[in-house]
Design goal:
single chain, six-stranded mixed β-sheet, 14 strands
C-alpha cells in the first residue's frame, strides 16, 4: 500500500491527538498533596504577623491553623505575606484570656465555618474552630484547637473531641491541628488514637524523646511534643510525605518589640517568634477506589 506525504501527515496528526487525549484523561487513584501547619503564637506578643509570614514562606504552606492568636486582621496579615487569601477567626478565647483565639488561614476557599465550645476539666472554655474546603473534588474538614493537657480521660477536652467530633464525623477527610498540651499517646490524648486518628509524628518517625514544640517561658524547660496534626479519612488513603518541627522560628536580631511582660525572657531565648515552635506536614491524599 502506498501513502502520499499528505496522508502520512494526517495519520501522524491523528495519532498525536489520540495520545494527547489519553494523557489528559483523568486517571483513577489520582493523588494530590496539601501542606498543613499548626502554630501557637503566644497571643502575638513576641512577633508581628508579617514576621511569622516571612519565616513560613519557604515551606509553601496551603493551610495554617493558629492558636492563641489575636482576633481582628492578625491572621489575614500573615496571609498577605504568604498569598493565602481565605481566613476564619473564632470568637472564643482560651480560658477567656486576651488574644487567645483560634484561626484558620487557607489557600483554598472555606465554607461551613463555625466554632465548638468545650467546658471540660482543666482551664475553660476551650474550643475548636472548624471549616470545610474542597481540593481536587475531595472535601476536607479541619479543626484548629487549643485544649488543656490532662492525664485522666474522664471529662477531659480530648475525650470530648474524640466522642463528639471524631467518632461521629461523616466527613470524607478529617484533620485536627493545634496545641493539645499532651505528648503523643500520653494522657487523655490516647482517646484520639482509640477513635482512629493518625498522627504525623508516628508517620514521620520523629524521635519523641529528643524533640520539643514548646519551651516554658519562665523556666526555659522543654515541654516535649505537645503540638499536633491528626488525620483520618473515609475516602482517601493519606500518607505523610514530609514535615517536622521548625526550630529556627526567630525574629531578626535587630528587631525590637514593646511588650508589657516577658521581655526579659524573649531576649534571653534569642527573640523567638513564640514560646511554641511551628509544626508542619505535607499530606498526600489518594482516592480509594
Amino acid at each position: 500500500m502506498k501513502y502520499t506525504l499528505i496522508s502520512i501527515f494526517i495519520i501522524l496528526l491523528n495519532s498525536a491527538f489520540t495520545i494527547q487525549a489519553i494523557e489528559s484523561k483523568p486517571q483513577p487513584n489520582e493523588q494530590f498533596s496539601i501542606k498543613f501547619a499548626a502554630y501557637n503564637v503566644l497571643f502575638g506578643l513576641w512577633a508581628a504577623p508579617e514576621s511569622i509570614g516571612e519565616k513560613l514562606k519557604k515551606y509553601n504552606l496551603d493551610i495554617i491553623c493558629f492558636n492563641e492568636v489575636p482576633n481582628g486582621d492578625w491572621t489575614k496579615r500573615v496571609g498577605t505575606i504568604l498569598n493565602l487569601n481565605h481566613t476564619y477567626v473564632g470568637e472564643i478565647s482560651s480560658a477567656n484570656h486576651k488574644n487567645k483565639y483560634k484561626s484558620i488561614l487557607s489557600r483554598f476557599p472555606l465554607y461551613n465555618k463555625g466554632e465548638i465550645e468545650i467546658n471540660a476539666n482543666g482551664w475553660k472554655p476551650a474550643s475548636l474552630v472548624y471549616a470545610n474546603t474542597k481540593v481536587k473534588n475531595a472535601t476536607i474538614k479541619m479543626h484548629s484547637t487549643h485544649i488543656p493537657g490532662q492525664q485522666n480521660l474522664n471529662d477531659s477536652a480530648a475525650d470530648f473531641i474524640a466522642e463528639n467530633i471524631i467518632k461521629t464525623s461523616n466527613d470524607e477527610n478529617l484533620i485536627i491541628l493545634g496545641d493539645l498540651n499532651n505528648k503523643p499517646k500520653k494522657g487523655a490524648l490516647k482517646a484520639f488514637y482509640a477513635a482512629g486518628m493518625k498522627s504525623i509524628w508516628n508517620e514521620l518517625k520523629i524521635n519523641i524523646s529528643m524533640n520539643s514544640t514548646h519551651k516554658h517561658i519562665e523556666s526555659g524547660k522543654e515541654s516535649g511534643i505537645i503540638d499536633h496534626i491528626f488525620f483520618k479519612s473515609k475516602t482517601h488513603s493519606i500518607k505523610v510525605k514530609s514535615g517536622g518541627i521548625i526550630y529556627d522560628a526567630f525574629n531578626k536580631n535587630e528587631k525590637e518589640i514593646k511588650m508589657s511582660r516577658y521581655k526579659k525572657e524573649w531576649i534571653k531565648y534569642g527573640k523567638p517568634l513564640s514560646d511554641h515552635r511551628p509544626i508542619w506536614a505535607e499530606l498526600i491524599f489518594r482516592k480509594i477506589e
